[in-house]
Structures are given as C-alpha cells and as structure tokens.
Design a protein that fits this description.
By secondary structure, the chain is α+β, with helices and mostly antiparallel strands. It has six helices and two strands; from the N terminus they run αααααββα. A hairpin with a 5-residue loop joins β1 and β2 (117-125).
C-alpha cells in the first residue's frame, strides 16, 4: 500500500490491513473473504451491523466494531458521487470493487426515471467463469 497506494489493493487486501491478523485456525484473508460476502449480501442502502459481522468465526466485538466504524467513516467522508447513468461506462465507478473478486457476480442496478441509481444489489455469486440467475431473482432484488 505504501508503494502503490490504496487504489492498487483489492477489497480483500484492504480488509486484511484493517483486521491486522487472523486467528490460530483461520487466516486474515479468509476472514476478509467472509466479511466481503456479508457486505455483498447487504443492500447498499442498509448499514452493516456489528452483530452480523460477529457471525464470522474468529471475528469478535472489537474487530467487528472496527470494520463498521471504518465503513461509516468512509461513507461520511467521501463526497457524494454523480449517480446519474447516461452512458454504460457511467456504471463502472459503482461496481469496480467487484472486479477483483475470484467469482462471477451478477449485479442488478435499479434506476429511477431520471436515470439515477437507486440501488446496486448482488443477485447471484457463481463460480470462476459463470453464475446462474433466474429472472425472478432479478425482479425481486
């Protein structure tokens, strides 16, 4: 991170830095993957709860609180981004964090009449090169 900056790191690597270390039985990378899975399943407009992070084996109250605090600080300090989608490329800033994942992610992006992003939801997480999605999952997200 010191050599290339935070933008050069994957989400897993950033979380690993926040966590510092894993446990005797679980590496910090595995813990970070499980936290990312919880974050992916949580709608963007909902706040992550400490209790949901504590469901990860090896993550206690202190580390769960640290992750929640870091997410809230990021939400407060980042300037609001332009959320209107005019061209397909306008979507990229909102989903670029998914690019470093090792599995296919099928995302549903809901827009209002003014082409503003209402929500970005992970509908399905598949294997390395494909995922299965049923239309009802897309329409209920």
């Amino acid at each position: 991170m010191q050599a290339h900056g935070a933008l050069s790191l994957s989400d897993n690597e950033l979380l690993s830095i926040l966590l510092g270390s894993g446990t005797k039985n679980r590496s910090v990378s595995i813990l970070a993957d499980e936290i990312l899975a919880i974050l992916d399943r949580t709608p963007a407009d909902e706040q992550i709860q400490v209790k949901s992070l504590m469901s990860v084996e090896g993550l206690g109250k202190a580390k769960s609180t640290l992750i929640c605090a870091a997410l809230e600080l990021g939400r407060r300090r980042l300037p609001p981004k332009r959320k209107q989608i005019i061209f397909p490329g306008d979507v990229y800033p909102f989903i670029q964090h998914i690019g470093s994942r090792l599995q296919e992610h099928f995302l549903s992006i809901s827009l209002n009449g003014a082409h503003e992003i209402m929500s970005v939801t992970t509908v399905s997480i598949g294997l390395v090169n494909h995922t299965i999605v049923h239309p009802r999952d897309v329409f209920t997200s």
